[in-house]
Amino acid sequence: MKTLYIIGNGFDLHHDFKTSYEVFAHYLRQNNPKLFQIIVEYTKLQDCNNPWHKFEENLGLLDMESFITQNATTNNELTIFDELFPAFKRFILSVKTYRTDIPLLQLHSKALFFNFNYTSTLEDLYQIEPNNILYIHEKAEHNDTKLLLGHGLDISDSVDSKVYQIGLSNRRKKAYDKKYYKELSSDPIRNAVLKYLQKSFKPTAKIIEQNQCFFNKLADIEEVFVLGHSLSPVDMPYFTKIKKCIKRDAKWTVSFYKPSEEMEHLSTIMSLGVNKENIEIIELKNLQSV
């Protein structure tokens, strides 16, 4: 196998499947309004609009000022976040991916697929063999499998200073230092914040290690297609790992959604060490047969 496809949520959106985080926000507001309100209150996510497209990143940006000011010192506020991941899985399972009116893209069915999505679109629509697909963050199925999503802020066992700084701008850290450090150091607050941040952390290094067998298959990859991925920072460790595993002069074809992403994606892929002449930036709808 000489071709690798890296599949992001834009791939599902291209097929008109309602899998965006903005749609999830509406789903959450309708089905769990209490959880939705707390997410809006304690993170940088706003109602059902921007920046919900950066949902995972914002899970790590807990608004400590609001949290401490409102004296949420016990389990009531933060433990409701335990409902977030099951709610997200129910949302994904509610999306039907076996039928679309959008013309299918021309994919190499025998290629390897590194899939960031939780849906079974590749199997349902394109009849890709499951053995050729790595669902790096698991696939949503009616079982006990937990989906992996979250922020990339690594939280160690001794992170008082890190936890204290989350949600505070540099300008305000000093001003709030004396006023809130004592409260923050108290066990109820500290433990609640740590528990939440640890649960919403996506351990990419561990995930990569657990899937080393797949990465070992990439040594002969000569072309990579990145389809519908935003190249968000939280997922870049995977791209770095892939770059190290494939052929050094492999060709990269990367799709963009908005015109502003064209140069951004080019710069991001080049930052991995890929030569500019080996990169092509396209609109997903223009993907040609391989």
Strand content range: 5-15%
Q: What composes the largest sheet?
A: 6 strands, parallel
The strand order across the widest sheet is 3-2-1-4-5-6
What's the end-to-end separation, in Å?
A: 13 Å
Low-confidence stretches: 157-185
Number of helices: 15
Residue-averaged pLDDT:
82
Rg, nearest Å: 20 Å
Q: How many beta strands in the DSSP annotation?
A: 6
Global shape: globular
Helical residue percent? 40-55%
Helix/strand/pairing class, anyone?
alpha/beta
Order of helices and strands: EHHHHHHHEHEHHHHHEHEHE
Describe this structure in words.
With 290 residues, this protein is of the alpha/beta class. 43% of the residues lie in helices and 10% in strands. It has helices at residues 9-14, 21-31, 33-42, 55-58, 64-69, 75-78, 84-93, 121-126, 160-165, 170-185, 187-199, 204-210, 212-215, 236-245, 260-271, and strands at 3-7, 112-115, 133-135, 223-227, 251-256, 279-283. The chain has a six-stranded parallel beta sheet. β5 (251-256), α15 (260-271) and β6 form a beta-alpha-beta unit. α2 (21-31) packs across α3 (33-42). The longest helix has 16 residues, at 170-185. It is globular, with a radius of gyration of 20 Å. Residues 157-185 have low confidence and may be disordered.
